[in-house]
Amino acid sequence: MTSFDLSLYLVTDRELSKGRSLSYIVEEAVKGGVTMVQLREKDCTTREFYELGMRMKALLSPLSIPLIINDRLDIALAVDADGLHIGQSDMPWQVARRILGKDKILGLSVETMQQAEEANRMDVDYIGISPVFATLTKTDTLQLFGLNGLKEATSLSRHPAVAIGGINLQNAAQVVNSGADGIAVVSAIASVDNPRQAARELKLTIKKEVPNE
Ligand code: TZP
Ligand code: MG
C-alpha cells in the first residue's frame, strides 16, 4: 500500500473556496504542510469530477502527497488515485477493497462508537471519526463525538484514526492529544484568505515542526 501520513488531511469543497480554483487551494495547502488530500465534491457531474481528479493527481503525485477520492470508486480507479474514502452508506468496504486491490488506501467514516468498533473487523486502512465538533460544512451529521468520544473511539480502534468536523487552530492540539493520528479539515484551510499560512499554523500546532518549502 502507498504509505500515508494522516496528520494534516485536507478535504476539499469548492463551494467554500471563495471563487479561487481548487488547484490554488490545494497547492497552497500542500506548501503549508498538508500531508494528504481528499477530493470531496458533491455538486459536480461525473465528467467534472473526473477532470478535477486528473488535475489533482497531476498536482499531487510529483509531490508524493496521496490523493484520496471521496465516495466514487469509479473515479478513484479512472484517475488512478492513491485511495478511496467511503461513508457508511457508500459502496460496502469488501467490494471497494476487492475492486481497489491491496495497494490502494481505503478510508471509512465512522459516525458512532459502534461503527468505530465494527470497523475493527474490516480491512480498511484508516477511519475518519466524524464529526468531532459542530460544523457548518456537513449538515447531515448524526451526533458529535466531542473530545471524550474521540478518546474512546481512538483507544478502541485498531486502525489509524483521523478526526473531522469543526477542527481549527483553537482545538487542533486537543484533538491530537485525544489520540487522533491527524486532523481532517475543510473550512479551516479552504475558506481562509491564506490557505498556506493556515496549513502551516495547523501543522505547527499538531506537530511542533515547520514543513520544508
Ligand atoms: N465529514 C464529517 S464533518 C465534515 C465531513 C466531510 C466536514 C468538516 O468540515 P469543517 O469545515 O472542517 O468543519
Ligand atoms: Mg460518502
From TrEMBL:
<dbReference type="GO" id="GO:0004789">
    <property type="term" value="F:thiamine-phosphate diphosphorylase activity"/>
</dbReference>
<keyword id="KW-0460">Magnesium</keyword>
<feature type="binding site">
    <location>
        <position position="70"/>
    </location>
    <ligand>
        <name>4-amino-2-methyl-5-(diphosphooxymethyl)pyrimidine</name>
    </ligand>
</feature>
<feature type="binding site">
    <location>
        <position position="166"/>
    </location>
    <ligand>
        <name>2-[(2R,5Z)-2-carboxy-4-methylthiazol-5(2H)-ylidene]ethyl phosphate</name>
    </ligand>
</feature>
<dbReference type="GO" id="GO:0000287">
    <property type="term" value="F:magnesium ion binding"/>
</dbReference>
<comment type="similarity">
    <text>Belongs to the thiamine-phosphate synthase family.</text>
</comment>
<feature type="binding site">
    <location>
        <begin position="186"/>
        <end position="187"/>
    </location>
    <ligand>
        <name>2-[(2R,5Z)-2-carboxy-4-methylthiazol-5(2H)-ylidene]ethyl phosphate</name>
    </ligand>
</feature>
<dbReference type="Pfam" id="PF02581">
    <property type="entry name" value="TMP-TENI"/>
</dbReference>
<dbReference type="GO" id="GO:0005737">
    <property type="term" value="C:cytoplasm"/>
</dbReference>
<comment type="pathway">
    <text>Cofactor biosynthesis; thiamine diphosphate biosynthesis; thiamine phosphate from 4-amino-2-methyl-5-diphosphomethylpyrimidine and 4-methyl-5-(2-phosphoethyl)-thiazole: step 1/1.</text>
</comment>
<dbReference type="InterPro" id="IPR036206">
    <property type="entry name" value="ThiamineP_synth_sf"/>
</dbReference>
<dbReference type="InterPro" id="IPR022998">
    <property type="entry name" value="ThiamineP_synth_TenI"/>
</dbReference>
<dbReference type="InterPro" id="IPR013785">
    <property type="entry name" value="Aldolase_TIM"/>
</dbReference>
<feature type="binding site">
    <location>
        <position position="109"/>
    </location>
    <ligand>
        <name>4-amino-2-methyl-5-(diphosphooxymethyl)pyrimidine</name>
    </ligand>
</feature>
<dbReference type="GO" id="GO:0009229">
    <property type="term" value="P:thiamine diphosphate biosynthetic process"/>
</dbReference>
<feature type="domain" description="Thiamine phosphate synthase/TenI">
    <location>
        <begin position="8"/>
        <end position="189"/>
    </location>
</feature>
<keyword id="KW-0808">Transferase</keyword>
<protein>
    <recommendedName>
        <fullName>Thiamine-phosphate synthase</fullName>
        <ecNumber>2.5.1.3</ecNumber>
    </recommendedName>
</protein>
<dbReference type="GO" id="GO:0009228">
    <property type="term" value="P:thiamine biosynthetic process"/>
</dbReference>
<feature type="binding site">
    <location>
        <position position="90"/>
    </location>
    <ligand>
        <name>Mg(2+)</name>
    </ligand>
</feature>
<keyword id="KW-0479">Metal-binding</keyword>
<keyword id="KW-0784">Thiamine biosynthesis</keyword>
<feature type="binding site">
    <location>
        <begin position="38"/>
        <end position="42"/>
    </location>
    <ligand>
        <name>4-amino-2-methyl-5-(diphosphooxymethyl)pyrimidine</name>
    </ligand>
</feature>
<feature type="binding site">
    <location>
        <position position="138"/>
    </location>
    <ligand>
        <name>4-amino-2-methyl-5-(diphosphooxymethyl)pyrimidine</name>
    </ligand>
</feature>
<feature type="binding site">
    <location>
        <begin position="135"/>
        <end position="137"/>
    </location>
    <ligand>
        <name>2-[(2R,5Z)-2-carboxy-4-methylthiazol-5(2H)-ylidene]ethyl phosphate</name>
    </ligand>
</feature>
<feature type="binding site">
    <location>
        <position position="71"/>
    </location>
    <ligand>
        <name>Mg(2+)</name>
    </ligand>
</feature>
<comment type="function">
    <text>Condenses 4-methyl-5-(beta-hydroxyethyl)thiazole monophosphate (THZ-P) and 2-methyl-4-amino-5-hydroxymethyl pyrimidine pyrophosphate (HMP-PP) to form thiamine monophosphate (TMP).</text>
</comment>
<dbReference type="InterPro" id="IPR034291">
    <property type="entry name" value="TMP_synthase"/>
</dbReference>
